[in-house]
Fold this protein.
Amino acid sequence: MKWFSLAIALVTSVGSAEPGRWALQYDTPAEKWVEALPVGNGRMGAMVFGGVAEERLQLNEDSVWTGGPHDYAHPGAHEHLAEIRRLLFAGQQREAEDLATREFMSLPMRQQFYQPMADLRLKFEGTPVADVTDYSRSLDLSEAATSTSFSVEGLRHRRTVYASFPDQVIVVELEVDQPGQLDFVATLSTPHDRHEVAEIDAATLQLTGLVNDAEIGSGDVAEGQVRFAVALRGVATDGECRVAEGALRVTGATKATLLLSAATNVASYKDISADASARAMADLEAASRRTPTAIRQRHTEDYRDLFDRVTFSLGEPDAGVADLATDDRLVAAKERPDPDLAALVFHYGRYLMIASSRPGGQPANLQGLWNQDLSPAWGSKYTTNINAEMNYWLTEPCNLGESNEPLFDAIQEVAEAGAVVAREHYAAPGWVLHHNTDRWRGAAPINAADHGIWPSGGAWLCQHLWLHYLTGGDEEFLRSTAYPLMKGAAEFFAAYLVEDPRNENGWLISGPSNSPEQGGLVMGPTMDHQIVRDLFANTIEAAERLGVDEDFRRQLAELRARIAPNQVGQHGQLQEWLEDRDDPNNKHRHVSHLWGLYPGDEITPDTQDVFAAARRSLEMRGDGGTGWSRAWKVNFWARLRDGDHAYRVLDGLMTLTGSPKSSHNGGGLYANLFDAHPPFQIDGNFGATAGVCEMLVQSHRRTADSERLIELLPALPTAWPEGKVAGLQTRDGFEVDLEWRDGELTTCRVESLRGKPATIVLGDRRQSLRLDAGETLSLDRQLKPL
């Protein structure tokens, strides 16, 4: 595993610019963690509080976890599989769950927790908070930088914080506008008990530590095995910089530069033999050889290459609204129109993805990259019955294919662990992942039998592999990475599906399983069948394109035809289970049986009865729920072609929560726009961005002869009468730019990246595309070429 470093540079050349249009902005420092502003380089993150007399940067590194390498499989669990199924078929659910709890679950029953690493504090002695004027702090999404500025007794302070991926550094720039008036003390601390701070040389401190032992639940205690090192060095200042008494002091300066590097002993999910201190010092030395100006330039070029690929705006912003502090803006938007707020939330999701998922690092977890708690909610793990997947819905349409690389690396690792689980728990080939995994790639069912035994997490993740190929068309990726993983997941389900003895149709069903977090352990949940049909179809098509495994293709096609189909129930709803027992008053946050509507593609206007049933199910479930649940519903309503309803749910998500300024307590956004489950989960941010994409462009359908349909503005809400978007990507490699006014398309530009045929669709109008790779076509509102 590649390590990373964090650099803090303080210079005068940056930090004076006002934030641009796409910025979060505030007029007071953060008091709570969910008010602080996030920066990240994919490997390390910092939450910046913007304090006056004391600045805090709460630091994370993505390999700092409790525990260590571990095989979670339960040897011999498969010996009880037949009996668990017999009990479920006999209606003895409690007995089946009791047996599964004793004999079928992960060892131990729980997985490990993502951990905070350290804190950097900068104390500005003699700075009277009571005399502060003209305070502002912001996060400029276009520059990936936070800024804090204020005046104290006529002295103007400026600070900027950003995270550089190319140099694996986070940069903090501090300056004052009067010579020699900058004095501060920098210290490092950690919430982990076993640590020490050493003075390396006259300008360098190093904090080393060992992750705490942790109670992870069910009576299990995980011994801390991850070691980390953080090194702080003063490298450039026009004042005096010295290390003494466990602190770094800068005095008599106008500007200063610090470098902070960090690393762990985690070499891979199976190996913790790396030297954390040596790694940290190596990165510190490398960062020290670059000037702050060079670091900033490389950061800006790298970040904007990603962020500038997509643009989106909804008319000209109202200055009276756009100038408000962001938390006040969330409140004000409920009283007067602020369509640009939705665009800000859209861009924030893209920013958070770039900041939390870059090649060489770990995938974005439940909190992305940022966590200050030793016992975070749900362990801040990877929950694969919706949350981990929702994190990555935006990557392909938002032209951020590189951000998938950590996810794909993790899938390859979890497939190795999942092959052991497939063998021990199901006596099956291939690989399987249940509803959670962690840094050590646990794949066995955890927590409790009634929701932990859900074997479709790996199959769902395979959809991301296929969509990445469909969008980018990388044949080598398909051959070497995607298809082997898809094939392994399909091999598992080919062995796992079982004929249902309760009906005469010869249907194959999934089980033991559950409809995530509802109904307990069952046989035949609808969601499983939709996911497995999708997996089999994609694996068949991938094998055809590669010209391999003809016999296996035939086997999958035969099995797929026998999987229990979607069922319409007594309320006109899409049934969540084979049994018609949906409760019309059930408002649960999971709407898992609509997976085939989104992110799947088997429920479309071409399947009218099931399409209508999906709508009925969504109406029954309601518009409320947690942040991520609302985000999923935005995507559902977009697929249902109801833009106003999609916007209604999105507007509900864009509600200030957890603040004295609002009485709202859940399913909204915190002051820093983090998704409030509550508590914080980042999937709602990512899911909302994906939902906006679905409202503007859809490409999941094909014609009868398998030609791609690119549908323009399929769910445009009346709340967005004008706007423009550029750079959205579709399946089969098209890039789409749109502009509309008065709710009607004015112009469209389509570029073919792969030379595939397609049909552009706008309402009842269609235009065939036959473009060579690299060729562009512009269309008017009638879809006529310009």
User: Anything to note?
Assistant: The two ends are 51 Å apart (CA to CA). The longest strand covers residues 227-237.
